Amino acid sequence: MAVSIDLFLGILLPVIVMALHYTVQPHRFDIFEGYGCQASVWWSLPAIFAVSWWPVLLSLIAAVYGIIAIKFFLSRRLQFQTLLRSSKSGLDNRHYVRLMALASVDILLGLPLTAFAVSQTIIKRQPYESWAVVHYDWSRVDQYPARQIFNSASNTAAIVLPRWHTPLLSIIFFLFFGVSIDSINEYCRWIDWLKSKMPSRFRRPREPQPTFVPKLGSTVARPIGGDWKEPSTLEESVVTIDESHNQDQVEHRQSNVVEGVTVAVRVDRQIV
Question: Of 46, 6, 1, nearest to 25 (Cα)?
Fold first, then answer.
């Protein structure tokens, strides 16, 4: 379903708008002095529904969905986190908040601009006489001097502001997502990959990274109970026992000595 919506908004809807635009396109295009090319439109009532009202409609739909999403996010934050994890979309709270902020900025900027464009269409509208009249000599390209086009503030705003809407949103999108920690890490990864493909004489030598060198130490703990002797002393004492003594006394002497050594190893890590 999500893929179908993306394909409709990204491919099918623009094709529909281009086809509808041809119904109110009197000639190929216009050229404004000092500004460039501009799509030609026969400003009339059909032009409002064929060209002008689509941005307003999409902005209103986005505003409704944005308000619902913000309300759901604020009222059910824990449930929302679970929903994001189960959706396998790769989003977390930070990414979703940025998306909502970007959508809000798009609505706050786009809706007034598109509404202003529709109002200018209504002001400049003229009757749509017939298909033959509108498309007469359709292959021509009209040229207009700057003093004729930019003769008032309203005309200048109606021409300039819609064109700057998309670059402005692109800059805002980069500020939201292009300077995040994830993006910076991705930039560094690509830079390292490019450096690895460069000749060795252009590469800077890698600085040695700190490593962990284990520093081992050991302590000997004496067991509880019995007489304690070091291992070397224990061997000497057993060897030097007089052979004339009774074997029972030797066994009794050895039984009082615990022949065990407990070693506790303490590991220290040191950064060098």
Answer: 46
**Nearest C-alpha neighbor of 39 from the set 50, 127, 133:** 50
Give the C-alpha separation, 162 to 118, whole Å: 11
Q: Alpha helices, DSSP H only, in the chain?
A: 2-7, 13-23, 45-47, 53-75, 77-87, 93-123, 131-134, 146-149, 153-177, 181-197, 231-239, 247-255
* C-alpha dihedral sign at 113, 118, 119, 120: positive
Query: Could you tell me the pTM of the whole model?
Result: 0.57
Cα separation, 196 vs 198, in Å, equals 6
Structure tokens at 179: 């300077």
Q: Is the pLDDT of residue 69 over 60?
A: yes
Average pLDDT over residues 23-27: 93
CB 128 within 8 A of CB 46: yes
What are the CA-CA distances from residue 135 to residues 16, 138, 221 (Å)? 19, 5, 102
